[in-house]
Amino acid sequence: MNEYTYNIVNSNRIKEISTLKNEVFLVLYACGNTLKGNINYDCVGTKDNVLLPDVNLVISNCQALNTRSIILVHNHPYYRRTLSTLFSKYCDSEPSITDIASTRAFGNLAKEQGIDVLDHIIVCPDGSYFSFSQNGLI
Questions:
Q1: How many domains does the chain have?
Q2: C-beta of residue 27 within 8 angstroms of C-beta of residue 58
Q3: How far apart are the C-alpha atoms of 58 and 137, rounded to whole Å?
């Protein structure tokens, strides 16, 4: 785990996100040595799905903050996946096919506007996480 991923995953804000019952999405804007995010979540979804924020809004926020780099963060809450896990809480931080495809599409649109998506991190309540960057998906 690199230093910025460690700091993000262990921040109070991201720990709070990891415990929510529904998926939420947060964009972190890299401004010098600090990361800035909205007070509210950029998108709120269901227990197993969340849409990515509007790329034009993210680009507008980047311009307002004078940055060209962002990090995407969302959570995977506990949910029941199979009969064998019916009575236990199970969390999978691995991205879904939809997570991968939508991140690539978002990243391509952002890149056309000069914005770099540095990472997309998925966090779970059990402390596990998945970094697209560390796994070669960005």
A1: 1
A2: yes
A3: 21
How confident is the model over 12-61, as pLDDT tens digits? Answer: 878 887 888 888 888 888 877 777 776 556 656 666 667 677 888 888 88
Domain of 7 in residue numbering reads as 3-131
In the predicted model, what is the mean pLDDT of the chain? 79
In Å, how far from its chain's centre is CA 73? 2
- For tokens 């010098």, what's the residue? 32
Cβ neighbors of 126 (< 8 A, separation 6 or more) are: 91
Residue 134 neighbours by CB under 8 Å, 6+ apart: 1, 2, 5, 119
Rounded to whole angstroms, the Cα distance separating 37 from 41 reads 9
